[in-house]
Design goal:
alpha+beta, 8-stranded mixed β-sheet, 12 helices, disordered N terminus
């Protein structure tokens, strides 16, 4: 039977709507494979909160030298608290790369699929409120609202960029289990593609000049406290792609075969920017007018550069790989800059008073990251200054080398570190000095325990009611002083005083009452930080039948728990240099004498040393207690971990050992 035309049209429209409503969003085959593959293996007793199903990158180097990058990533959320991981972050350089084209999905266990729309994309500039804008922009797609436990969040994006560095780092492992990890590099004919493996054994395949490295079913990366970062880097590789020698491509000569190649590049892009203008020269002369020595000149100019506002911004990243600073005159004019800008301004100021200096590249967050055997620019994320100095300059941040001479390293971005010191984060790390010498790769100086010493003098009195009142004078040196300055700069006054009380309480002291009486920062002198603090500990001692009184003479910063008490460990331990020297004079209540105490504890190891002495001065009714702890900067291998644990266990026991007073 033929239906009337209007009715037929209505039915056809209804069927079309039903068909559209029932259609599910499409997603690519790679994502279907990722979602359907078996879960990756877990470590024994591991309960991962997420698992990576697919982690893939493809770098295609085009004939014109540009690089097309394709990223694919899929993750299954196993714990609702981890759904913050359901987020695509795609960063690019606006001046040298195309905006990423992103697709993202959330796959639910029941088969439903949510495909994110163009309107779900958010873009922001990685700049600050200041004058100039960063070239780095980030496009994000956030899956927080759509993703729940058991869901798979996935995304892929492509972008094409101009870059001077065709060197890539790839980590196969993650902090969660990984089902598949893959990287592919395609290059024009005649280009070379080389790789170096680190604990990784990927399957390598080659098709023409396209190389793929793939690994499946990878256990999660295990991290343990106090581990050196180099030990925690597992199953990764680095890839170096280089054009043929006769290539006419832009930047084609930037194939860093040696560290000298990188140093020459640094000098080429940085030195012209460090030329002092008349205004900078005048400022340098004014700042050093009263300086009587080389050290005072360097200190005055360094403190001025530190005072320039520091902003994490990237300029000319596409063309200069983050190594090209602004001219010193521009940073001087606007009064702010990033690390390379501030270092360049400092170099211009130094040059104006006849002091030579060089640009230095390093990793400010991971001093174990660079590998001396593999030259390349990709290790570094920070820039500081090396100043050529005479034998008169003596400071922890001085480096001596036959070819480079005596260099004083200054970081004008670390406001809490005085001139003459560099923080723990950089100490011992590899850095490249932009000076043409046979070997510009240096290892930044390490401080000694003595240079990080805390000196403490305590005078206290123990009363009949078991409470204690006292005063402690503390002098912090080196990184101990830096840590205190960081607290002061990060907290307001009330929060800082609360933090002092918390530190006194953390040693097991009950309900401490603390008042900071005096503070002195010798930033421009011996670089120490001094405090005088009054304290009260109600009920500090334990009383027994009004005959005995028991208390611990290690009043502050007692090591209560052994930090290395784990019975099993898979990674070595990194110790940092520190030192404590303490003298405590504790007046005992009238009518009491020392009945039991340990006169001396002495422990000596390669990791450090520990010593206490305790004596009773009956004439003054006084316990005199001294404590010395030295921890050396070293990496403790696994086969000596038991020794390290025993060392700290002995310290814990000594610091919990009490003095027993008896009523006469």
């Amino acid at each position: 039977m033929r239906l009337p035309r209007p009715i037929a049209l209505v039915l056809l429209s209804t069927l079309a709507l039903c068909s559209t409503a029932g259609a599910k969003p499409k997603y690519p085959d790679w994502l279907r494979q990722a979602a359907e593959q078996p879960a990756p293996p877990r470590r024994a007793d591991e309960k991962p909160t997420f698992e990576v199903l697919w982690d893939e990158a493809h770098y295609e180097i085009l004939e014109n030298g540009r690089v097309k990058q394709t990223i694919r990533y899929a993750i299954r959320i196993l714990d609702l608290q981890e759904r913050w991981r359901a987020k695509a972050n795609c960063s690019y350089y606006s001046s040298s790369a195309t905006r990423p084209k992103i697709s993202a999905w959330t796959l639910h266990p029941n088969g439903d699929v949510h495909k994110y729309k163009k309107s779900d994309e958010k873009e922001r500039s990685n700049s600050s409120y200041l004058t100039l804008e960063s070239e780095v922009r980030t496009v994000t797609v956030d899956g927080w609202d759509e993703t729940r436990t058991g869901d798979v969040f996935a995304y892929e994006y492509t972008t094409t960029e101009s870059t001077i560095f065709t060197q890539y780092y790839w980590g196969f492992q993650s902090s969660g289990p990984v089902a598949l990890s893959r990287i592919t590099v395609s290059a024009p004919a005649g280009w070379t593609i080389d790789q170096t493996y680190f604990d990784a054994s990927p399957q390598k395949t080659r098709d023409g000049n396209t190389v793929t490295w793939e690994q499946k079913n990878i256990l999660s990366k295990k991290w343990e406290p106090h581990s050196p970062s180099s030990a925690a880097k597992r199953e990764h590789m680095r890839i170096v792609v280089a054009p043929p020698p006769d290539s006419r491509l832009r930047f084609s000569s930037l194939n860093f075969e040696t560290w000298a190649d990188l140093a020459a590049f640094q000098a080429k892009v940085s030195d012209p920017m460090a030329e002092p203008t008349a205004e900078i020269a005048a400022k340098a002369q004014a700042l050093t007018q009263g300086a009587a020595s080389e050290w005072e000149k360097i200190q005055a100019l360094g403190e001025y550069a530190k005072a320039i506002n520091y902003e994490h911004v990237g300029l000319e990243l596409g063309n200069g790989g983050g190594y090209t600073p602004r001219p010193a005159s521009e940073t001087f004019r606007v009064g702010w800059g990033d690390c390379k800008d501030k270092s360049t301004l400092l170099r211009a100021l130094l040059s104006a008073v006849g002091i030579d200096s060089y640009v230095v590249s390093l990793n400010a967050t991971d001093n174990d990251y660079a590998d001396a055997t593999l030259p390349g620019p990709f290790y570094f994320n920070h820039c500081i200054t090396a100043v050529q100095v005479s034998d008169d300059i003596q400071a922890p941040a001085v480096y001596e080398d036959e070819s480079l001479g005596r260099l004083l390293f200054i970081d004008p971005t670390w406001n809490n570190s005085p001139i003459g010191e560099i923080p723990f984060e950089a100490q011992g790390g590899l850095a490249v000095v932009g000076k043409l010498s046979p070997q510009p790769l240096v290892r930044l100086p390490l401080t000694t325990p003595e240079q990080n010493k805390i000196s403490r003098n305590i005078v206290a009195e123990l009363f009949d009611n078991a409470s204690m009142l006292g005063r402690v004078a503390t002098t912090r040196h080196g990184q101990s002083a830096v840590a205190e300055r960081r607290l002061l700069s990060r907290l307001d006054r009330k929060e800082y005083l609360e933090s002092v009380a918390e530190r006194y309480a953390s040693s097991g002291n009950p309900s401490p009452v603390v008042k900071v009486m005096e503070e002195k920062d010798n930033l421009l002198g011996d670089r120490s930080y001094q405090t005088t603090t009054d304290f009260a500990f109600p009920g500090y001692a334990k009383q027994m039948r009004n005959v005995l009184m028991i208390f611990k003479p290690a009043l502050l910063d007692r090591i209560v728990d052994n930090p290395f008490s784990e019975t099993e460990r898979t990674l070595p331990v990194r110790l940092r240099a520190r030192m404590l020297e303490e003298t405590a004079k504790i007046y005992t209540p009238l009518g009491y004498v020392a009945d039991e105490f340990v006169p001396e504890v002495s422990i000596q190891t390669d990791f450090g040393s520990y010593k206490t002495t305790t004596q009773f001065d009956e004439n003054d009714s006084q316990i005199i207690y001294t404590r010395s702890f030295v921890q050396n900067d070293c990496v403790v291998p696994l086969d000596r971990y038991a020794e390290l644990s025993e060392f700290f266990a002995a310290i814990v026991e000594a610091e919990q050992t009490p003095v027993v007073l008896a009523r006469k």
